[in-house]
Amino acid sequence: MKIRCQENSIRLRLRKSDLQTFASASKVSESVSLGVQRFVYVLAQSESYGATIEAGQLTISVPRDVATQWINTDQVGISHSIIWESGETLDLLIEKDFPCLGRATEDKSDTFFELAEKKDNVC
To answer: Can you give the pTM of this predicted structure?
Structure first.
């Protein structure tokens, strides 16, 4: 699973193996070592959309019914905006990972080639 954060947006891209874990365990996680600390990010199925960060772990939650539809169809992504009490907005985009054709050395075997073929732009 890949993460991209920019301004008030978080984008997660899941490989096929990530999607299988998300389907069977109702969550998938990845981590980055920061020396003596680890940054962990999690995508979890829940009752509603949400985003929390505690003890170095970012958890993004999506409703189970939305996740189930996304997992079991050719739907490429889930897009949702969370509006906080402060009035700020967090935009979420969770997508199936496409191969990056311009990166010849990158392992593309765990990406969604079959969905990428239906789109003009891949990566």
So the answer is: 0.81
